[in-house]
């Protein structure tokens, strides 16, 4: 089937982005797909176009309310009326109405919690489901910050729904995570469509310095576009916000804000009313702002997976962008602290379970998540073993993060090799370690930029 015509007809685009056509044609042949494509590649279009070309509804599981709303909004903007987000924002009577009229919808977005509810499941079983989509599928993985225990039951729910053709989407691509997604969400091995995680338009920089604040100030002074500045803690986010609010249009975002504050912040940032956003890693998943030019890490993330996700928010419009990591020796201490904390949480959890005290009142938020897993999915022993394994993985991940920082060769090569790839073509604007970019004699002749001394000046003169 010629897919370019419907692409034009429904979306007005004249060509597919890498991977899209293969995914859609595989799904149309009723084969399951796990798609691992970089952020901004256009994963949503894969299920939308497939949905248009088939009878029946498309059920999309999405981890965040804001993400769901974005997606619904985008479909509506294109004139699609048969779309609904079935989530906790609906009133009881609205839910009832939707359930009674499910057949009228083409795209139904749900949170995994909602999908676990029997009324919705029952209503869905009465419908023809053309496609079952799990967005941000890396949330099944116990290794990531985005881990959602409710994601673990999505494979079983797929079965209950009569095993419709299934599409899992993610941008995170290490092999262990891929394996986990395959095991949990699919009954038989899916077709894996995986493209390079490399984002050529994002130049990579690390600056080891005792003067992070001063360097950040320089970066902000010369930046000519939107910037996210990631910090490890809420406290640091607020401190930097206070420090810079006199001079710039800045905002901050962390898990301590309520839903409406978060939405407002996102909107202000999207509309360029704020140019600089200080944030913890709570900010970003699913953010739909294409022209973020800079992602600065004031603190190092705990893994290259998270680093990749976070820098991936820059330059979704494919224009030159930069990822800058500011590192002061010893910064990693915060992660050792978190690792220790997490170990203690696990030990307390273990003690309570052994003492037969397994009601939620004994536990903090993360321990309650674990309890959900233990109660619904796994025996305590298996889960405790998983947690211990996870502690080891975290240590290794942090080592890899530090190795990236101390890399003396090409940073992009190291980053890609971590994700099991080899860098084939070096981009012109690669990384601060890669002398080829700036110091090449031909560049020097044609560009005054190469005369500049340190990489910061070089970086800032680039755009
Ligand atoms: P992802 O989920 O992979 O991060 P999205 O699905 O949010 O990416 O899409 C990012 C942007 O790319 C959207 O604005 C979408 O309209 C656009 N897009 C998707 N496919 C194409 C295409 N084939 N041609 C041009 N733009 C596209
Ligand atoms: Mg997406």
Keywords:
Rossmann fold, 13 strands, 463 residues, binds adenosine-5'-diphosphate, 14% strand, binds magnesium ion, alpha/beta
How would you describe what is shown here?
This protein has 463 residues and is α/β, with parallel strands linked by helices. Helix content is 45%, strand content 14%. It has 20 helices and 13 strands. The strands form 2 sheets. The chain has a 7-stranded parallel β-sheet, with helices on both faces. A 6-stranded parallel β-sheet has the order 8-13-12-9-11-10, with helices on both faces. Helix 8 (154-160) links the parallel strand 5 and strand 6. Magnesium ion binds next to helix 3. Residues 43-44, 135, 286 line the site of magnesium ion.
Q: At the first level of CATH, what is the class of the domain at 4-194?
A: Alpha Beta
Name the structural class: alpha/beta
- The number of helical runs is 20
Describe the strand arrangement of the main beta sheet, using strand numbers: 3-4-2-5-6-1-7
- The termini sit apart by 43 Å
What is the helical fraction, as a range of percent?
Answer: 40-55%
Strand content: 5-15%
CATH fold annotation of the domain at 4-194: Rossmann fold
The molecules bound to the chains, other than polymers, are: adenosine-5'-diphosphate, magnesium ion
pLDDT averaged residue by residue: 88
Query: Segments where pLDDT lies below 50 for 5+ residues?
Result: 436-453
| Main beta-sheet strand count, sense and barrel state | 7 strands, parallel
Radius of gyration: 23 Å
Approximate shape: globular
Proper CATH architecture of the domain at 4-194? 3-Layer(aba) Sandwich
Say which CATH homologous superfamily of the domain at 4-194 is assigned. Answer: P-loop containing nucleotide triphosphate hydrolases
Number of strands: 13
